[in-house]
Amino acid sequence: MKIKTLILYAALMVFLVLTMGPFAFVINSSFRDNVELYHGYFGVPRAFRGMGAAAMQVARGDARAMTIENSEGEARAVPPREALGHHARLAVLSYTRAWAVIRPYMVNSLVVSLSTAAGVLLLATMTAFVLSRYRFFGSRLLFLFIISTMMFPGVLTLVPGFLLVKQLGLLNSYWAMVLPYMAGGQVFAIFVLKSFFDGLPEDLFEAARIDGAGHLQSYRHIVLPLSKPVISVVLVMNILGTWNNFLWPFIVNTEGKHHVVASGLYVLATSAYASNLSTLFAAYVLSSIPLLILFIYATRPFIQGVTSGAFKA
Amino acid sequence: MGTKAGSILSERMRFTLSCYALLLPSVLLLSIFVYIPVLWAFSKSLYQFEVGGESEFIGLRNFGEILWRDPIIWPSLLNMAIFTVIAVCIRLSIPVVVAKLIYSLPTERGRYYFRLAFLTPIVVPGVAVQLIWGGLIYADQGLLNELLQRVGLPQLAHGWLSDPRTALIACAMVGFPFVGGFEVLIYYAGLANIPQSVNEAALLEGCTGVRKFFMIDVPMIMSQLKLILILTIIGGVQGFEALFILTRGGPGFRTMVPGLWMYFNAFSFQRMGYACAIGVCLFLIIFTLTLLNIRYFRSTEELEGVR
Amino acid sequence: MKHVSFRSVLRAASLAVILAVSGWALLPPASDRETPGSGRRTYGDEVRFVIRVSPGQQYMPGSVPFGIGDPLRGLSDVIEDFERRFPDTRIEVLTVPGVREYLVSLLSSGQAPDIINVNVEDVWIDVQKNWYVPLDPFLEAPNEFIREQGAPDAPGYHQWWDMFKYQAISRGKAAPDGKNYCLSYDMVETGVFYNKTIFQEAGVDVPKDWDEFMVMLKKLKDAGHTPLLMHSELFNDWCTDLFFDQLYYAILPGIDLYQDPSREPYLQGYLDDFEISFLFRQGFFTKDDPRYMEVWRIMKELRQYTNQNIATVDLVREFVTRKAAMVWNGSWFLYRLKADRHLGFDWGVFYLPQFTKNTSPYASETPMCVIGGAAVQFEVTNSAVSDTPPDMPFEERMATSERLKRVIQFLQFLCVPEQYARIVNEYECFLPNIVGVPVAPALKPFEEILERRYTTTKWVFTFDLKFAEIQRRLIELYLNGGISLDGFMDWQTGNIAYGVDNLFFRKKFDVDQLQRAWEEKSPLRAGMEGLPHGD
């Protein structure tokens, strides 16, 4: 029994290490400078080694001068404490550069993703509720109408979608992103929520109806509380989806006032003459931080939600 | 009497109308931002059309070209089928195994943290994963070739993405070891929802281990498998971004898929109308596959109903 | 119970801390200049023109070339000077994605930045749509900033055109309709960068001709190195043009059917798309053309000495880790090597050696160089005339637009030598294309190469983007052994035929005149060997 458990853990750890590999690689690389990255894939960041050596000297109280190089390659001797600061600055250099690129877009990304998520929440719960609990003329057809949109190829709608947004006078505003994202993003949410609502026992609603609850009450007092975990899944998935979309924001923000983080990442990733991997990796890490924070707070309901069994067909 | 019938009718009507009113915002948004552009694009499939240029009605000629004259379409459809089948095989197998392993852990704490750990990498954007695979793993001096040299198989080392014999399979294998945190969670949910009575009955009949996994667990999570199947097929038919970054469909057309070919036609070849026709075909393929999927793969509920 | 409440307090507290930290990080307004591309500015009434410029990555303020050194600032300094000079104008620098779908969406609706940096081939296929402003009338007029300096012999005093150093290449950017939409801002030339240490160890030297080159490549390969790094784009661009030129130059007098009076002084013997189309119909560039077959035979021979995965563009790693002896690259690579302080070996540059009669009986054995291109070319988009009524004819819009005048002034300002040097010479990557601007010392070898005669084609860009796309895919497939030379030629013939048909469909030109020229040159061709159909 014990050996079996050990084997289980070992197998899972192997899978986990392989899965986390790229993640760890990105983080490690983000602390190495570009030259280092091109001279080898792995290794402790040079700046960390410098910091280590300087920290050792500081800790031992060894005041001998250490050599550091400035960005022009000129060497210079400085006290260990100053060397420590120098190497620490080098370690985060790619982060400061990446931050300069994506910082102006961070607020936009937050506004767009969060308001899209809020809109999707409102629309999807309402629509899924109606489609799941009530049978009326055309309800199945409407569901099909909504679900089929998952099957349309996205590239083709780029040009007509843009012309439409322009016609509606929405260019260079948050609406140009939020409304189309909401329209597209609600579909998967409706699909999942409907399948969850379908699974709620009819008795609950029966009981509520006998107690004199209207549709709105049963929606508010039965459906919403029960479906919190599923909703959290839908929201997290939605935010993940909008966060990494770069092309649409580029196209509808002709004046560049509402760009999002993903656009900044794209620019870093595709600058051919200046392939700058270390800044790019740092930018990936930075842009993931809001998602990670979201994750830390949403994991429990997220896992609960997926585990609730709504994700099936 | 007439008034009574009228009021019943109107109550029914009113109910239907109020349902419609509640659905209105969703449907309106979809109509404006999805259906109008899609219908525009689909209607352009009947035209010889380039963005910013003239358009000329040519009937079904674009479709004729797809079916009979375009030498790229059929090989790319085959590639798409291969990619999709491989993706389906991968996403319906390894995450299930991992979910089962997690589910078999003795403590709830352990199960929780492993689920969490496998989920975290989904914050890494897909582009980063593609860059790492194209630039680091498959490169000439990349990890794969280095590994082969270390284990004494230097003759196997080669340009994985540019050799016509290996490009396709190399692209399909991107993302190893294929443990998508989201899928693991979904399968885990399926496993967790298997009624205790079923598990106990299986135990009584001496059905354990690998046999139980195939005889009990897999059929009982059929609903989840079906969802992932549908999503994978949709992604497989529509998706081309990864290939765009990895090989642009090359060498030659060895990793070309219809989605990517549509992209090139729409934006590089000034043939928006033709691209739209390819889009219509892709939509029809997905639609048919999804219908078949829903019709012919029984979900868990139906299996339970049979039992 | 107590435990739970402690947890929730912890959660709430941590959330508050995170919110506070992120608020602190996000809220303080950044100063205008520090965040290029954000465009987050509002202006008072005194600002009449807000001009949006997308200069591309090469000179983007704030970007760090190759991730080495300090962030660039040259362009933003020049913009500051321009705004001081014209207080009613603001220049906003934007980053845009270099993808076709972005261009197509924005240009088709007049929403693109006023000045963008797009490859000339992308411009050519879109010119008839009035997406770009032709620059000839402005280039033929004085540069007003030079004129006001008052020296009549300074280039630009009479004509802006005169300021450009590489006339042939700059004027060669004219679109199929004969107008010039591209301002070639700088110049790129190519070279083979080699590792001197590896050369010494292997006992090889810089080759004098192609035969020596092949011997040397073999030696390096036998010594366990990757002899030469190339990516597939290189094979179908520079490599094709160099090979083509060496094999065809000798018979050029017999096949150069059209001399464009405006370009001939600069681009002697250049084969235009319609000339190539006509020649194709005479049997050239097919299996019957032994010269054309030689191009691909020699290329395949070279292929066996290059890196295996030619799909990757990022060849830096193999060279700096000393796995490869040589890398064929553009002049920009020089900066990358110079700035790498951990390189640990010496390197040099030479140009791809010439074929001899031994390599191929058709070798012309005359020096040439790849017809260079600009790393940065500026185009003025239809947004620049957005202050005029859209239903007016385009010429009239150009003539009346005040906004366009200011956009042109800005481009002229960028070409004033003092300003120009601040941008292009900020780091050693590209050669100046403005007369009187010093060339960075390390780039001198490339300047010398550019003084040679230019190649007679830009083969892969002869026809439209579809032709190019298929051509480059097939070359890659052929070089990687996925298709035989015979199959490759069948495909190619079909593809060229498609390109020719599409050209005839889109563009009118005088076939009779070409036919006449063809017949007139028949005596010249009489003594030439290896022409298709034994003509």
Walk me through this protein's architecture.
- The complex is a heterotrimer of chains A (313), B (307) and C (535).
- With 313 residues, chain A is mainly alpha-helical.
- Chain A is built from 14 helices and 2 strands.
- Chain A has 2 domains: 30-91, no CATH class; 94-307, MetI-like (MetI-like fold, Orthogonal Bundle), CATH 1.10.3720.
- In chain A, 74% of the residues lie in helices and 3% in strands.
- Chain A has a two-stranded antiparallel ribbon with strand order 1-2.
- With 307 residues, chain B is mainly alpha-helical.
- Chain B has one domain (40-306): MetI-like (MetI-like fold).
- In chain B, 71% of the residues lie in helices and 2% in strands.
- Chain B has a two-stranded antiparallel sheet.
- In chain B, helix 5 (108-119) runs antiparallel to helix 9, helix 9 (181-192) runs antiparallel to helix 12 (222-238) and helix 12 packs antiparallel against helix 15 (272-296).
- Chain B is flat.
- Chain C is of the alpha+beta class.
- Chain C has 2 domains: 45-163 and 376-428, 3-Layer(aba) Sandwich (D-Maltodextrin-Binding Protein, domain 2); 190-371 and 453-534, D-Maltodextrin-Binding Protein, domain 2.
- Chain C has helices spanning 2-26, 74-85, 100-108, 120-124, 136-139, 144-147, 167-171, 196-202, 210-222, 232-248, 252-255, 273-281, 290-303, 316-320, 333-339, 394-400, 402-415, 417-424, 444-449, 465-479, 485-506, 511-520, 522-526; strands at 49-53, 89-93, 115-117, 183-184, 186-187, 190-195, 226-229, 324-330, 347-350, 377-380, 431-432.
- Chain C starts with a helix and ends in a 9-residue tail after the last helix.
- Mean pLDDT of chain C is 87; it is low at 30-40.
- Chains in contact: A-B, A-C, B-C.
- The interface between B and C is medium-sized, with 32 and 37 residues.
- Largest sheet entry of chain C: 4 strands, mixed
Strand percent estimate of chain C: 5-15%
CATH superfamily of the largest domain in chain C: Periplasmic binding protein-like II
Number of strands of chain C: 11
Low-pLDDT segments of chain C = 30-40
Assembly state (oligomeric)? heterotrimer
**Principal-axis shape of chain C:** globular
Q: What is the first-to-last residue Cα distance of chain B? A: 49 Å
Number of folding domains of chain C? 2
| Share of helical residues of chain B | over 70%
CATH superfamily of chain B: MetI-like
Instruction: Give the strand line-up of the largest sheet of chain C.
Output: 7-8-6-9
Outline the biggest β-sheet of chain B: 2 strands, antiparallel
Helical run tally of chain C: 23
Tally of structural domains of chain B: 1
